[in-house]
Amino acid sequence: MKAVSAAGDAEAVSGPAIDVRGLRKSFGTLEVLAGIDFSVARGEVVCVIGPSGSGKSTLLRCVNLLEEPTSGTVTVAGTEVTDPDVDIDKVRRRIGMVFQSFNLFPHLTVLENLTLPQRRVLGRDRAEAAGIARERLARVGLTDKESAYPAQLSGGQQQRVAIARALAMDPELMLFDEPTSALDPELVGDVLAVMRSLADEGMTMLVVTHEMSFAREVADRVVFMDGGVIVEEGAPEQVIGAPRHARTRSFLARLLTPATADLTEAAEAADGAGKRSGPV
Ligand SMILES: Nc1ncnc2c1ncn2[C@@H]1O[C@H](COP(=O)(O)OP(=O)(O)O)[C@@H](O)[C@H]1O
Ligand SMILES: [Mg+2]
Predict the structure, then answer these.
(1) Ligand 1, residues 23, 49, 57: which to mutate, most atoms within 8 A of Cβ?
(2) Near ion ligand 2, which residues have CB within 5 Å?
(3) pTM
(4) Which of 70, 145, 159, 214 is least surrounded, with the fewest CB atoms within 10 Å of its CB?
């Protein structure tokens, strides 16, 4: 590991939470990330949007090295995770990750799902882990569910347990990969409310989502990805409200009103055809 000077320490404390430079990732001949540069400041909430297959999940997975980048650097809170000598387990401990699928242990109660990783990874004793687990369950509004098994909970409740489990590890930043995409529509709101409260408390968050109203209201910045590159990024009211690029506009049009977008395109095409042929 590199020796870190006192000045380096200070920089590590004040620098960005996530810094990505020239990131490329290929699977065989398929280039999924084609040169990504971006950073997330401490306390910032960044939402990543973009069509399926654009590389959003791969980007998130490169941040905590669930995928190994083909080239480029990723730095998390001052530690370069792409440094071959890095203690990646130590870095991962600082990063909470919440996936579309909740990945709870089905044979453990909610409380046990929260205490097990604290005891295994952080070495906390049973009583301390349980105390922290109960505090985090209260934060996600599930105090009364600690003895339930995951199968006895709704999808939204399971996802809130998964968020509480990540919070019990005292992460410095949280990565969310489409946390509400697997949920019935009526369960999405409670999960987004928990995420909003985390953002309000100052948690650093990188969130892949299709929930445009959440991105508009909660994100400090929105990043639009397509084809393995960042097409545009900026304030939510700009990227979502007044996108500069045609690719962003067509993605948003499809997302917000899938059926009408097609109709509008058809109408525009017909209109264009009409104009080209002129009045009859
Ligand atoms: N482990 C993998 N092996 C091969 N191809 C992969 C792998 N993971 C992702 N891909 C491909 O990379 C592309 C981007 O995937 P992904 O990052 O999941 O996109 P998104 O999250 O934006 O939908 C897709 O074409 C996907 O099939
Ligand atoms: Mg994905």
Answers:
(1) 57
(2) 56-57
(3) 0.88
(4) 70
Pick the closest to residue 79 from 89, 67, 66 (CA basis). 89
Ligand 1 midpoint to CA 72 (Å):
18
Residue 1: pLDDT band (50, 70, 90) is very low
pLDDT tens digits, one per residue of 43-80 = 999 999 999 999 999 999 999 999 999 999 999 999 99
Q: What single DSSP character describes residue 110?
A: H
- CA-closest residue to ligand 1 atom 1: 27
Closest ligand relative to 53 C-alpha: 1
- 275 pLDDT exceeds 80? no
pLDDT tier, 162 (very low <50, low <70, confident <90, very high otherwise): very high
Residues 6+ apart with CB under 8 A from 214: 47, 192, 195, 196, 207
Task: Pick the closest to residue 63 from 218, 171, 192 (CA basis).
Answer: 171
**Among candidate residues 82, 7, 79, 75, the one with its CA nearest the CA of residue 39:** 75
Residue 276 binned pLDDT confidence (cut-offs 50, 70, 90):
very low
Six token digits for residue 85: 């000598």
| Other CB atoms within 10 Å distance of the CB of residue 22 | 12
Can you tell me the mean pLDDT for 228-234? 98
Q: Choose the residue to mutate in 26, 30, 59, 60 for probing ligand 1, maximizing ligand atoms within 8 Å of C-beta.
A: 30
Q: Of 46, 48, 45, 41, whose CA–CA distance to 77 is shortest?
A: 41
Atom of ligand 1 nearest to the CA of 60: 17
Residue 239 has pLDDT above 50, yes or no: yes
